[in-house]
Amino acid sequence: MQWVRRFGLTEPLICYQGAQVRAPDGQMLLDHGIPHPLAMEVIRFARERHLHVNAYRDDRLLVEHDTPEGREYAHHSGLEPDIVPDLDLAMGPTTPKLVIVAPEEEIHALLPEVREHWRDRLFVATSLPTYLEMTIPHADKGTALQFVAELLAVPQDQTAAAGDGRNDVPMLSWAGLAVAVEGAPPEVLAAADRVVGRPGTGGLAKLLDEL
């Protein structure tokens, strides 16, 4: 919601990797959270491996420990971490998503393991190379984009999406025009119709001007 205020946005906003769609005033339009028991499976997995994990409740960033990984995530997201004694007690009946934060090489090794462990039970992908993000299987950016397009009565072939993370693949697969950012993982590039330059090169600005 901080970005809604900063940029004066007036249309629905896809949040939490597609788990929620919110109106500009914060009203919940779509909410697909991870059930508490399933979320706790992931949290116990992270605890056993001494991995930093984030959960969320009412737009609060919940963590059990103050870690360098947590501080880096908080700085990037613009959210102040809420350190709680026990995520089991702090989370609600659902959490929109879970995020494991670790060095890139560790996330790269974890990705296939976590995908296999929770196959058909969680959608698992990276956003940034150091973030391993999890939602329930039908809660992704593609499902959310379809929901918003239908809400606004925009035909699928008139939608466009741009992304650079593995969590963007469902969105790119559904959009009428799918645009990947140079340097994105191979599976992201494979889902795209075209590629624009890296951040800082004006690639996205040129695309928006063209559209």
What proportion of the residues is helical, as a percent range? 25-40%
Mean of the pLDDT scores? Answer: 95
User: Low-confidence spans: pLDDT under 50, at least 5 residues?
Assistant: none
- Kindly state the number of beta strands: 14
Strand proportion, as a percent range, falls in 15-25%
* Biggest β-sheet: strands ordered side by side in the sheet: 7-6-5-9-11-10
Overall form: globular
Structure, explained:
By secondary structure, this protein is of the alpha+beta class. It has 9 helices and 14 strands. It has a 6-stranded mixed sheet with strand order 7-6-5-9-11-10, sandwiched between helices. A 3-stranded antiparallel sheet has the order 1-2-3, covered by helices on one side. The longest helix has 14 residues. The protein is globular and about 50 Å long. The model has no long low-confidence stretch (mean pLDDT 95).
List the helices and strands and how they pair.
Blueprint: H1 2-7, E1 13-15, E2 20-22, E3 28-31, E4 34-35, H2 36-48, E5 52-57, E6 60-63, H3 68-77, E7 81-83, H4 87-90, E8 94-95, E9 98-101, H5 104-117, E10 123-126, E11 131-135, H6 141-151, E12 160-163, H7 169-174, E13 177-181, H8 186-190, E14 194-196, H9 203-210
Parallel strand pairs: 6-7, 12-13, 13-14
Antiparallel strand pairs: 1-2, 2-3, 4-8, 5-6, 5-9, 9-11, 10-11
Structural features:
single chain, 211 residues, alpha+beta, six-stranded mixed sheet, three-stranded antiparallel sheet, 9 helices, 14 strands, globular
Brief characterization of the structure:
By secondary structure, the chain is α+β, with helices and mostly antiparallel strands. Helices cover 36% and strands 25% of the residues.
